[in-house]
């Protein structure tokens, strides 16, 4: 694997080497060898039939030159029509078979890419930036798809036409083949020059496109923050810089293609001139007829289209190859591994954290030696100021990140599910969205899950009930409803351990109260770790863990902590707006 990051501070997802990319393509094609062989065999037959056109035209020229009877032209003209009909039908069949092969391989490539992308460690995706993965999912997949649908069939057709035409020239007269071959060194040099320039250029274009998309996502997604801190000019400068980089590389590609075409035309003129001169000399010497020389010239002229198409498709092929290498780079990433079987907590513990440390950047740790034990069925709240390390600890326990030091151990056969404030509603019916958590869930089980999170009432009032289309392009759900859907999925998934990272943060006060009740129902009977956005959530848990600067500074029950001088009491008083003497235990 190679890893190119265009000098940015992000660790972009890997890009496969050319050798590995070719091997991956062969792996995808191998199960469909029969279709590939049959499709190319039909293409060869269609091309061979089409090459009968030139000698038939040459024969007609000889008949006209010798002033033969008009009736003598009937047979070759009928044969020309028959050749056109048969070639057209065979070409259509061959192209459809090759296109079918391409679509089949493309579908398998997409499946493998999406399957592996969904299993990438989130920490790796975050380091690369969502723009990198988004660019691969959209731009690179589209580039490869377009190449599979258009470039592959046309390239196959063109290469076959070139090879068989050269064979036909040799059959007409070997001297015509030698004359035609004078163009080959110029064409080969042009192709080699172009590939050497195009491969790294298109790879840089793909990376620049990903960087541009990442910056757009960051600037638009954080528009409110950008405006609040008056950072519009800075972000505009970043967008302009990365966009200009992408435009510069695109224009370099256009200039490269123009130079490629100009060199290619010179090669064509050299070859055609050589064939015409050879034909003139051979006809004058009585070695061949005018019709034969005409057929040879038509053969070489017929090469213009296939040769130009093949060489021009190098442009698309190189761009597609760069995109394909980026897709294979993701496909080859190792899957997330389950925790080692021996790393288990004690029978009384659901989660055991020991000496846990983590850093997103070397030398800048965000957690320091965290030790924490969570008993089976216990509800624990994580509280602290912003930046205290709560979310990082929750993500480490949920398996989103791999700890830099220390360990996270679980009880036997424990599974962890995590819900954050950023919940995605997938496009489709509400029922299908819920069944993502349990595909075999019955309608009754879906309604039961919605009932437990107090969502069935509004779900049934949707235009088509649970069959209503939600997500992109569908019925828009409120922030509270989205979280209720996520909690219903949690109930359907039924994991022993649930991690909730500020699951009520996006809801208003009224929505937060609804969600707090829904959370109580969703985590009933489970071990739960709650990153509390509202301290009323902490008051309702079995234990409160207070964090500050990546360390645990207090642990205890709400009733004990909020009446004792310390960090939690300060947080509670700030949140409630009361003085310490006015505070009273609160349990919800």
TrEMBL record:
Domain called ABC transporter: residue spans: 351-574
Entry's transmembrane regions: 35-57, 77-102, 155-172, 178-195, 269-300
Topology term for the membrane: Multi-pass membrane protein
Keyword Membrane among UniProt keywords: yes
The UniProt record lists the keyword Ion transport: no
Location in the cell: Cell membrane
Chief place where the protein resides: membrane
Molecular function in Gene Ontology: ABC-type oligopeptide transporter activity; ATP binding; ATP hydrolysis activity
Domain ABC transmembrane type-1, first and last residues per copy: 37-319
Cellular component GO terms held in the UniProt record: plasma membrane
Domain of life: Bacteria
Keywords, ordered alphabetically: ATP-binding, Cell inner membrane, Cell membrane, Membrane, Nucleotide-binding, Transmembrane, Transmembrane helix, Transport
Name this polypeptide is given: Multidrug ABC transporter permease
Organism per entry: Acrocarpospora pleiomorpha
């Amino acid at each position: 694997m190679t890893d190119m990051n265009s000098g940015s501070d992000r660790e972009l997802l890997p890009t496969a080497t050319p050798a590995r990319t070719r091997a991956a393509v062969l792996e995808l094609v191998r199960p469909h060898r029969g279709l590939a062989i049959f499709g190319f065999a039909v293409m060869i037959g269609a091309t061979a039939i089409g090459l009968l056109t030139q000698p038939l035209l040459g024969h007609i020229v000889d008949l006209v030159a010798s002033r033969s009877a008009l009736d003598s032209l009937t047979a070759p003209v009928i044969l020309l029509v028959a050749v056109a009909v048969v070639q057209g039908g065979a070409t259509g069949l061959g192209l459809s078979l090759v296109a079918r092969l391409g679509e089949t391989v493309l579908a398998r490539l997409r499946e493998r890419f999406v399957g592996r992308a969904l299993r990438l460690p989130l920490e790796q995706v975050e380091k690369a930036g969502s723009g990198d993965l988004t660019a691969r999912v959209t731009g690179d997949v589209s580039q490869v798809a377009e190449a599979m649908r258009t470039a592959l069939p046309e390239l196959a057709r063109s290469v076959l036409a070139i090879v068989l035409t050269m064979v036909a020239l040799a059959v007409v007269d070997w001297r015509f083949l030698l004359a035609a071959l004078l163009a080959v060194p110029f064409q080969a040099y042009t192709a080699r020059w172009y590939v050497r320039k195009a491969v790294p250029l298109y790879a840089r274009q793909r990376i620049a496109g990903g960087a541009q998309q990442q910056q757009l996502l960051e600037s638009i997604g954080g528009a409110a923050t950008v405006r609040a801190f008056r950072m519009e000019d800075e972000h505009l400068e970043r967008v302009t810089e990365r966009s200009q980089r992408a435009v510069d590389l695109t224009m370099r590609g256009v200039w490269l293609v123009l130079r490629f075409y100009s060199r290619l035309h010179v090669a064509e003129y050299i070859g055609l001139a050589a064939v015409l001169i050879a034909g003139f000399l051979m006809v004058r010497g009585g070695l061949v007829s005018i019709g034969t020389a005409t057929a040879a010239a038509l053969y070489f002229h017929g090469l213009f289209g296939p040769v130009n198409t093949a060489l021009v498709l190098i442009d698309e092929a190189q761009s597609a190859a760069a995109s394909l290498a980026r897709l294979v780079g993701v496909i080859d990433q190792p899957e997330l591994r389950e925790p080692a079987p021996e790393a288990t907590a004690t029978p009384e513990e659901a989660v055991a954290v020991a000496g846990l440390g983590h850093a997103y950047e070397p030398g800048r740790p965000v957690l320091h030696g965290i030790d924490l034990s969570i008993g089976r069925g216990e509800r624990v709240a994580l509280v602290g100021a912003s930046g205290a390390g709560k979310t990082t600890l929750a993500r480490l326990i949920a398996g989103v990140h791999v700890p830099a030091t220390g360990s996270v151990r679980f009880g036997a056969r424990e599974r962890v599910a995590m819900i954050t404030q950023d919940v995605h509603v997938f496009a489709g019916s509400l029922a299908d969205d819920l069944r993502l958590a349990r595909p075999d869930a019955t309608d009754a089980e879906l309604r039961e899950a919605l009932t437990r999170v107090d969502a069935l009432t509004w779900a049934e009032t949707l235009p088509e009930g649970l069959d209503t289309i939600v997500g992109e392009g569908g019925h828009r759900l409120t922030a509270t409803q989205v979280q209720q859907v996520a909690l219903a999925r949690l109930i359907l998934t039924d994991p022993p351990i649930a991690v909730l990272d500020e699951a009520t943060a996006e809801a208003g006060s009224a929505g937060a109260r609804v969600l707090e009740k829904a959370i109580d129902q969703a985590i009933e009977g489970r071990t739960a770790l709650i990153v509390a956005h509202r301290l009323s959530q902490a008051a309702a848990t079995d234990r409160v863990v207070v964090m500050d600067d990546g360390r645990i500074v207090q642990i205890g029950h709400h009733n004990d902590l909020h009446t004792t001088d310390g960090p939690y009491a300060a947080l509670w008083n700030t949140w409630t707006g009361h003085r310490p003497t006015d505070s009273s235990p609160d349990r919800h």
